[in-house]
């Protein structure tokens, strides 16, 4: 029995005081900081929040008191007959999305900050009861329940798991506010913001893109001394039970296995912070104002696509740098031998982007017509003139292999023709049954302006940068490997010359230019440094 309170401390440092549990003066979400990119015309009840506040704009909503928000909340949803007479017009998913959004924007907000210690779950329950903050239609069914905002470095793992169970059982909404940090044991509470209805899962967790969610391998503290065999067995049981509880939180919360693996790869004294795309894979992320209003650099476009790929497949793909083409108003990168492509363009002053993914890849449920158009155009030597709305494809190549033989200029023209001309702010997407609709294109998010380029790519040559490529082409010509007139656009001739140079100077079989090859071709060190990503 003496071991139990000692072995369950999952900490970076032992907390001296309990978590601070307070009631915020006003819900912070209904503001420009969070909802500048929110589409109020989406969802079956998307306009109700503003409508029932008597507002048409966020500026108006920001002037309302918490009492005004509380008064509007009962009117903003469908409390009576919520799931009756749907008639196929709306899905349960749409209803639960609306309920979560309404609760998030209009409910009172409990803030939990500071380290988490044993007994905090009882303090939280008492706080909720004393302030009348439990809002349930029936026990365990609380679609409009209170928001719990988290800003904690973590603390006692078992105490956090107890709070997480309380949060999930009562359908509380979890929130990471602007600039909040929720790390270690705190993450268990955030992930428990979800509900299930008739076996169907619905997330109820939200975060600002400046917030950080940190994970690491649980740390079980045991004071150094001699232990008996029985004590060691008890300790092993405690460890196994606790780690199993952690896994159950991840499984119940429908968190990708790749994120769980990142947690267990991260040592207890280190921290793995989820990227914004990883956060989007587990909940709704509010983007900082400015999305789509800046021209992404090549490094920023690479970061956007690389982090998206990492969130989907659990790793960074080197080919995303090696295939990236960009121009003044467009960019595209893709992965050979796969159907993944990431591309964007400027439309009427705003930058938007789109992703092609293999069938069934999370989180897309639609096939983008543009992805088929790319494959069709590759059949036609990079032109779309004979690609109709059906986008007939005459080969069995995957998207990446269909694109790999096209020059930069052809790739950029495809993106320009697909995103800038035919569909404007929308893209056609089709379900597996063939039903098609216009889907809004995403603005390039503001977080990429602050995110570092993934370390995987740092130190590599940005070979397809027009400036770097033209310099490389001049050097290849000077060394007797003719690529024609240097034009900063890669094609079979340039790739073949790079392969020949690698064999001659480095003894390698590759069509990719490493820093060593640039130096061997006589390019000065300072120019090589300038050609590197992350320089």
From TrEMBL:
The keyword Signal applies. It comes from the Bacteria. Residues 1-18 form the signal peptide. InterPro entries: ClpP/crotonase-like_dom_sf. The keyword Signal applies. Keywords: Signal. SUPFAM superfamilies: ClpP/crotonase. This is Peptidoglycan-binding protein.
């Amino acid at each position: 029995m003496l071991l139990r309170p000692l072995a369950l401390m999952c900490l970076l440092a032992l907390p001296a005081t309990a978590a601070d549990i307070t009631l915020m003066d006003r819900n912070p979400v209904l503001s420009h900081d969070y909802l500048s990119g929110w589409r109020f015309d989406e969802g079956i009840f998307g306009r109700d929040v503003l409508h029932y506040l008597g507002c048409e704009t966020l500026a108006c909503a920001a002037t309302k008191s918490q009492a005004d928000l509380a008064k509007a909340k009962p009117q903003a949803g469908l409390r009576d007959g919520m799931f009756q007479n749907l008639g196929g017009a709306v899905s349960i998913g749409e209803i639960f999305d609306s309920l979560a959004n309404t609760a998030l924007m209009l409910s009172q907000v409990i803030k939990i900050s500071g380290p988490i210690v044993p007994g905090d779950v009882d303090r939280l329950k008492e706080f909720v009861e004393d302030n009348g903050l439990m809002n349930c239609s029936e026990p365990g069914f609380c679609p409009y329940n209170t928001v719990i905002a988290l800003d904690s470095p973590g603390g006692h793992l078992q105490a956090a798991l107890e709070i997480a169970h309380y949060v999930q059982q009562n359908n509380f909404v979890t929130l990471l506010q602007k600039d909040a940090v929720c790390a270690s044991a705190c993450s268990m509470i955030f992930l428990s913001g979800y509900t299930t209805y008739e076996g169907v899962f619905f997330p109820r967790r939200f975060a600002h893109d400046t917030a950080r969610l940190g994970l690491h391998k649980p740390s079980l503290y045991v004071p150094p001394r001699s232990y008996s065999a029985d004590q060691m067995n008890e300790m092993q049981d405690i460890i196994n039970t606790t780690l199993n509880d952690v896994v159950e939180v991840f499984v119940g919360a429908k968190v990708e296995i790749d994120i769980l693996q990142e947690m267990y790869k991260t040592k207890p004294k280190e921290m793995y912070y989820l990227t914004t795309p990883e956060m989007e894979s587990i909940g709704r992320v509010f983007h900082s104002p400015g999305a789509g209003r800046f021209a992404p650099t090549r490094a920023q476009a690479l970061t956007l696509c690389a982090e998206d790929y990492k969130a989907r497949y659990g790793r960074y793909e080197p080919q995303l740098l090696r295939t990236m083409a960009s121009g003044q108003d467009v960019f595209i990168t893709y992965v050979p031998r796969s159907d993944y492509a990431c591309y964007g363009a400027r439309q009427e002053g705003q930058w938007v982007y789109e992703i092609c993914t293999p069938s069934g890849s999370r989180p897309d449920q639609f096939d983008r017509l543009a992805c088929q158009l790319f494959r069709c155009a590759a059949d036609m030597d990079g032109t779309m003139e004979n690609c109709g709305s059906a986008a007939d494809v005459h080969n069995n190549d995957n998207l990446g292999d269909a694109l790999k033989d096209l020059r930069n200029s052809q790739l950029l023209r495809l993106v320009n023709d697909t995103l800038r001309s035919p569909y404007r702010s929308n893209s056609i997407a089709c379900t597996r049954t063939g039903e098609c609709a216009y889907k809004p294109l995403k603005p390039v998010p503001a977080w990429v302006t602050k995110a570092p380029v993934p370390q995987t790519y740092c130190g590599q040559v940005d070979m397809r940068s027009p400036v770097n490529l033209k310099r490389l082409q001049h050097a290849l010509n000077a060394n007797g490997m003719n690529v024609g007139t240097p034009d900063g656009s890669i094609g079979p001739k340039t790739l073949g010359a790079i392969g020949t140079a690698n064999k001659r100077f480095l003894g390698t079989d590759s069509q990719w230019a490493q820093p060593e090859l640039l130096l061997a071709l006589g390019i000065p060190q300072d120019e090589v440094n300038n050609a590197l990503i992350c320089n």
